From TrEMBL:
This is Ig-like domain-containing protein. One of its GO terms (biological process) is cell adhesion. PROSITE patterns: IG_LIKE. Keywords: Signal. One of its GO terms (molecular function) is integrin binding. The keyword Signal applies. SMART domains: IG (SM00409). InterPro entries: ICAM_VCAM, Ig-like_dom, Ig-like_dom_sf, Ig-like_fold, Ig_sub. The keyword Phosphoprotein does not apply. Residues 113-218 form the Ig-like domain. Residues 1-21 form the signal peptide. It comes from the Eukaryota. It comes from Albula goreensis. It holds the Pfam family Ig_3.
Amino acid sequence: MSGAALTRSLFGLFFFGVCGAQDCPLHLTTSTVVVRYGDPVSVNCTVSEDHTGIGWEASEGSGPLTNNVQFVTWSLKHLTIWDIKPQCYVNFLKNGKHNQCEQELEVIVYKTPDSISISAVNHTGPMLEGKQYQLQCEVQNIAPVQNLTVKWYKGETLEDQTTYDNLTKTPLNVSSTLLITPTSADDGAQYSCVAELELGPEGPEPHPADTSEPLTITVHCESLMPVLTASL
């Protein structure tokens, strides 16, 4: 246990009450912060009343219980923890009673993919008109998958999209498939897939997005079988 956490735990033994969220005199710069893996992060926590100690508790970046200040900052030069839950807490007197309350900061850590590629499954060379084929998009080492949408395009036209419900916070490899039945008009068409991270209102705009190299398809008409006729 960190020194800050131990101080908080020991101090909490002397408290008689914990205030509700509506009574908590703490205010965070933001309730949710979105950070690219490895980037710096910094959030202030301000107290609006007299207090007997304020501090941050986190697996990294904890600060000591501090008096005679109105705000404390949780900051890291490089955020490299995928699942971190910093909490700002304050001890104070209210109506003659000792109270303690806290505000938790939601941290969303994201990473764009190492690579994204598209291929035809179990097929090489020209495609035959009217036959069904499966295209596959491979996205390597991206997080968080629950915020990922893989979008399929034919040229500039959105054909389909895939979302994911995996709640794992660390990077994963994922794939998406698209079924196509090309016609002769699709000869030379270019398909591509885009891995887009939609990270909410606090996230970067435009959304982080990586696009595969296009897959150009060649479509041949299926040859007609020769019809043999007997001469009289």
